[in-house]
Design a protein that fits this description.
- This protein is an alpha/beta fold.
- The radius of gyration is 19 Å and the shape is globular.
- The protein has 2 domains: about 130 residues, NAD(P)-binding Rossmann-like Domain (Rossmann fold, 3-Layer(aba) Sandwich); about 100 residues, UDP-galactose 4-epimerase, domain 1, CATH 3.90.25.
- It is about 45% helix and about 15% strand.
- Helix 1 packs across helix 7 and helix 4 packs parallel to helix 5.
- Bound molecules: NADP nicotinamide-adenine-dinucleotide phosphate.
């Protein structure tokens, strides 16, 4: 029988890939969105759009009514714990559908960032909720490197505060594949996974892959954590987001993210995608790569 699935954070990176695939595979999707004007793509894919705020318990309760499963995604922000608590509460009220939660790498009480601490608090709340759950704690997204496209195009440089730290970063397409598999086929109850890419790589190596791809010298320029904080503030993410990104940068530069797992293959049966594959199939469009002819 076809499943009805509530997806929150529905216009975001992960959900934007998960929703069309769920629908393609026969599921009915209720998409909880912040701003319906950003939801055209998922609406065209066939999702029912429900506009609301994570802070609106009634809106979440009504969105969760009658669903078989919930994919819970909240953005990193100072209110993430209470926002996620409202999603958990809505699931419990609606008859306890299966609950798939997107957490983050290294979620722990002593995580090096407040985002990681908040994710841990919510993961614990999910475990204590009595809901049947699976938790994904993905590694750093390869898609984050889209943020460097402009400086690479204009100066040939990418600026980050990761030092020479290596990261087992993951293509968001692999996270989406994990979500679809778990939501439609189950089999991972009470499991917590840390999906990663196949390789742990540094930004110097990434600059080389991008440079070879766009046939231009690309240099990774390590910057200080304070420069990261200022750059994130300039992007309008606020003090909380700026500190979180500076703290992640410090942790990654100290080797905190230098590991890989087989979790993508365990869940999907396929090996995770490499950075080169991500460049060729996704990031290259950010550079408006001229045709080879
Ligand atoms: N980036 C990484 O490297 C990384 C790594 C591991 C884990 N994570 C975790 O992944 C999660 C983010 O996933 P993502 O990148 O797929 O999400 P995302 O692209 O940040 O999207 C977040 C979604 O939530 C919506 N939203 C924001 N505020 C809302 C509100 N108050 N009420 C209702 N909806 C709201 C946004 O809508 P609008 O666009 O309309 O605001 C958007 O659709 C975070 O929990 C993060 O910690 C990230």
């Amino acid at each position: 029988m076809s499943k009805t699935i509530l997806v929150t954070g529905a216009t975001g990176n992960i959900a934007g890939l998960v929703i069309p695939e769920l629908i393609k595979q026969g599921a009915t999707v209720k998409a909880f969105v912040h701003d319906a004007s950003k939801a055209e793509k998922i609406k065209e894919a066939g999702a029912e759009i429900i506009e609301g705020e994570y802070s609106d318990q009634d809106a979440l309760n009504s969105a969760a009514e009658g669903v078989d499963a919930v994919l819970s995604i909240t953005p990193p922000n100072p209110d993430a714990v209470s926002q996620a608590a409202n999603i958990i509460e809505a699931a419990k009220k609606s008859g306890s559908p299966f609950f798939l939660r997107c957490s983050a790498i290294g979620a722990a009480a002593d995580a090096p960032t407040e985002n990681g601490k908040f994710h841990f608090e919510t993961d614990e709340a999910v475990i204590a909720s009595g809901l049947t759950y699976t938790i994904l704690r993905p590694h750093f997204f390869m898609q984050n490197t889209f943020m460097s496209v402009d400086s690479i195009m204009s100066e040939g440089n990418m600026y980050l505060g990761m030092g020479e730290g290596k990261l087992g970063m993951i293509d968001v397409r692999d996270i989406a594949d994990c979500c679809v598999k778990i939501l439609l086929e189950g089999g991972h109850d009470s499991k917590i996974y840390t999906p990663t890419g196949p390789d742990s790589i540094s930004f110097s190596e990434i600059a080389k892959i991008i440079g070879e791809g766009i046939k231009k010298e690309v240099t990774y320029v390590p910057v200080t954590y304070e420069d990261v904080r200022k750059a994130i503030l300039d992007m309008g993410w606020g003090e909380w987001g700026a500190k979180v990104m500076a703290d992640y940068s410090k942790a990654y530069s100290e080797g905190w993210g230098d590991f890989t797992t087989d979790d993508v293959e365990t869940i999907t049966g396929n090996k995770s995608r490499s950075y080169k594959q991500f460049f060729d199939e996704v990031l290259t469009w950010g550079f408006n790569k001229p045709s080879e002819s």
